C-alpha cells in the first residue's frame, strides 16, 4: 500500500487543503470515561457484580453485549479495553472480511509477545457471515484476541453455536428515565465536553419529556438535546416545545423480521387470549407503526380465533376472516378500522381451547391406532360383493326418526366410547354441551330399551 503523504503547505502558513476537524457529536463527547460515569446497567456494573470485578481485575474473557441501541455496548467495550490496558481494534462486517481478521490476529500475536493483549470489537456481530464468525474461533480459543461483540439481535439465532459456546453473553437493558435524566443534566453542566459553556436553562418538564421520548436510548437523548441547544443558542431556554420540535417524529421501535417482531406478535396473541383489548390494540398499533405487513397480524388473529376462542364463539373466526377480506378491499388506512373491530371482538369474546385439545387427542389416537378398519356398518356398499361381505349391514339412517339421531357406534372397536372433545363452560359451548347431553340421554334410553327387550325375551324363554 502506498504511503499517504500529508498535503503540502506554504512555508510559514497553514495548508490550503486543511480544514478544522468537525466537532464530535455531543453523544460521542459525553461517552463515559470510567465505570462510575456509566449510566444504567447496574445489574452488570454495580460494585461487587461479577462483570465489574472481572473488568477491574483485568481478567475479562471474550463476550457479547446484547441490548437495544443507545444502551452503551460500544462504550462498555472501550472501557473494558482501557481498564485492562489492551489495544482496542474495531472490525466491520460490512467493509472488512476474513483477510482483515488474519491481519488483526498477526498484529495481536506480535502485541501479545510484548505482553499486551488485544480487544477485537465486532459491532453488529449479527451481521457477520459464517466464514467471518468461524475465522474468530481458533484465536478466541487460543487467547490471541479477546473478542467483544455487540448486537441488537438475539445471539441464540444470530451467532453460530461454536462461537457462542466460547463467549459469555451479557444483556444490556434500556436506560430508565432517571438514568437518561442524569445523562442530560450531566451534559448540560459539563463545560469541558458538554454544553456547559452555553449557559443553557432546561425546564424540568423538558428534561422529563426528553427522558421519556428517548425510549431508553442515551444517544438519541443527547442528539435531541444538541439539536435543541443549537436552536435556542447561548443562554437560551430549552422548553418542552423546543424538545418536541427537536425530536420531530418519534419512530416505534420495531425490528421487522428480527426477534422483536416475534416478541410483539407473542404479546399481541397473549393479550387477545387474556381478554385485554387495550393491550391487544396497543401491540397491533405498534406493529402497524413499525411497518409490519397487516397480513401477518391477520394471520395471527385468525389462528387465535380458532385456537383460543373456538366454539365458545363461532362468530369470532368468521369476523377475523371477514376483517382480513375487508382490508383487502379497503387498503390502508381505512382497512385498519375492521382490523381494530376484529381485535376488540376477539379480545372480549368468551375463550375456549376445547377444539385444540380435541384435535390433539384425536391425533394422538390416530398415531396410537394407525390401522384400525372402518366398522362394516358405516361403509358404503356400491357392489353386490360388498353387500355380501356385510358392508353397510345394520346401518341406521339418522333421518328415519323425528329426532334425527339414532345411537350407533362410528369409531373402530378399539376406540369405542372414546371422547376427544369436551365442551367448555362458556359462550356457545354451553349450547353444544346441552346437545351432547340430550344425545347421551337418547343413547341411554335406547340402551335401556334394548336391555328391557332382552330381559323380556329371556323371561319368555324361561317360561316356555
Biggest sheet strand order reads 2-3-4-1-5
Classification by helices and strands: alpha/beta
Helix content: 40-55%
The fold-level CATH name of the domain at 41-171 is Rossmann fold
Description:
This protein is α/β, with parallel strands linked by helices and 464 residues long. The protein starts with 25 loop residues before the first helix and ends with a helix. 51% of the residues lie in helices and 6% in strands. It is built from 20 helices and seven strands. Helix 9 packs across helix 10, helix 10 runs parallel beside helix 12 and helix 11 crosses helix 12. Strand 2, helix 5 and strand 3 form a beta-alpha-beta unit. A five-stranded parallel beta sheet has the order 2-3-4-1-5, sandwiched between helices. A two-stranded parallel ribbon has the order 6-7. Among the domains are: 131 residues, Rossmann fold (3-Layer(aba) Sandwich); 71 residues, Helicase, Ruva Protein, domain 3 (Orthogonal Bundle), CATH 1.10.8; 90 residues, Up-down Bundle (Zinc Finger, Delta Prime, domain 3), CATH 1.20.272.
Essential attributes:
464 residues; alpha/beta; Rossmann fold; Helicase, Ruva Protein, domain 3; Zinc Finger, Delta Prime, domain 3; five-stranded parallel beta sheet; two-stranded parallel ribbon; 6% strand; elongated; disordered N terminus; disordered C terminus
Topology:
Blueprint: H1 26-29, H2 42-45, H3 50-57, E1 63-66, H4 73-83, E2 87-91, H5 98-113, E3 118-123, H6 130-142, E4 146-151, H7 155-158, H8 161-164, E5 168-171, H9 177-189, E6 201-202, H10 204-213, H11 218-232, E7 237-238, H12 240-247, H13 259-273, H14 277-289, H15 294-309, H16 315-330, H17 336-348, H18 354-368, H19 384-388, H20 429-463
Parallel strand pairs: 1-4, 1-5, 2-3, 3-4, 6-7
Helix pairs in contact: 5-6, 9-10, 9-11, 10-12, 11-12, 13-14, 13-15, 14-17, 15-16, 15-17, 16-17
Amino acid at each position: 500500500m502506498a504511503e499517504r503523504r500529508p498535503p503540502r503547505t506554504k512555508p510559514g502558513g497553514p495548508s490550503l487543503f486543511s480544514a478544522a476537524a468537525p466537532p464530535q457529536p455531543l453523544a460521542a463527547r459525553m461517552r463515559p470515561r470510567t465505570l462510575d460515569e456509566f449510566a444504567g446497567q447496574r445489574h452488570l456494573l454495580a460494585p461487587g457484580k461479577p462483570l465489574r470485578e472481572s473488568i477491574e481485575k483485568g481478567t475479562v474473557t471474550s463476550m457479547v453485549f446484547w441490548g437495544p441501541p443507545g444502551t452503551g455496548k460500544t462504550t462498555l467495550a472501550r472501557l473494558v479495553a482501557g481498564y485492562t490496558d489492551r489495544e482496542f481494534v474495531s472490525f466491520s462486517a460490512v467493509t472488512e472480511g476474513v483477510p482483515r481478521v488474519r491481519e488483526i490476529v498477526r498484529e495481536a500475536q506480535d502485541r501479545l509477545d510484548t505482553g499486551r493483549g488485544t480487544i477485537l470489537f465486532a459491532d453488529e456481530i449479527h451481521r457477520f457471515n459464517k466464514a467471518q464468525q468461524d475465522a474468530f474461533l481458533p484465536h478466541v480459543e487460543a487467547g490471541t484476541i479477546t473478542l467483544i461483540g455487540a448486537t441488537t439481535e438475539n445471539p441464540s439465532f444470530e451467532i453460530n453455536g461454536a462461537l457462542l459456546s466460547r463467549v459469555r453473553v451479557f444483556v444490556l437493558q434500556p436506560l430508565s428515565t432517571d438514568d437518561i435524566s442524569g445523562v442530560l443534566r450531566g451534559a448540560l453542566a459539563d463545560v469541558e465536553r458538554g454544553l456547559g459553556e452555553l449557559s443553557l436553562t432546561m425546564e424540568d418538564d423538558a428534561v422529563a419529556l426528553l427522558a421519556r421520548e428517548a425510549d431508553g436510548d442515551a444517544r438519541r437523548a443527547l442528539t435531541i438535546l444538541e439539536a435543541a441547544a443549537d436552536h435556542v443558542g447561548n443562554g437560551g431556554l430549552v422548553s418542552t416545545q423546543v424538545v418536541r420540535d427537536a425530536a420531530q417524529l418519534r419512530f416505534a421501535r420495531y425490528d421487522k423480521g428480527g426477534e422483536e417482531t416475534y416478541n410483539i406478535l407473542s404479546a399481541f396473541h397473549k393479550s387477545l387470549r387474556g381478554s385485554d383489548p387495550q393491550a391487544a390494540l396497543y401491540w397491533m398499533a405498534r406493529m402497524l407503526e413499525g411497518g409490519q405487513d397487516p397480513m401477518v397480524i391477520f394471520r395471527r388473529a385468525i389462528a387465535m380465533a380458532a385456537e383460543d376462542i373456538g366454539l365458545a364463539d363461532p362468530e369470532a373466526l368468521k369476523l377475523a376472516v371477514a376483517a382480513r377480506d375487508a382490508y383487502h378491499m379497503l387498503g390502508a388506512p381505512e382497512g385498519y378500522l375492521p382490523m381494530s373491530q376484529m381485535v376488540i371482538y376477539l379480545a372480549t369474546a368468551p375463550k375456549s381451547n376445547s377444539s385444540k385439545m380435541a384435535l390433539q387427542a384425536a391425533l394422538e389416537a390416530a398415531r396410537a391406532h394407525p390401522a384400525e378398519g372402518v366398522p362394516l356398518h358405516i361403509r358404503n356398499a356400491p357392489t353386490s360383493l360388498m353387500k355380501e361381505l356385510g358392508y353397510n349391514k345394520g346401518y341406521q339412517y339418522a333421518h328415519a326418526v323425528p329426532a334425527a339421531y339414532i345411537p350407533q357406534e362410528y369409531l373402530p372397536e378399539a376406540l369405542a366410547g372414546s371422547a376427544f372433545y369436551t365442551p367448555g363452560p362458556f359462550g356457545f359451548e354451553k349450547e353444544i354441551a346441552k346437545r351432547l347431553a340430550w344425545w347421551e340421554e337418547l343413547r341411554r334410553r335406547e340402551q335401556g330399551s334394548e336391555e328391557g327387550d332382552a330381559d323380556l325375551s329371556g323371561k319368555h324363554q324361561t317360561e316356555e
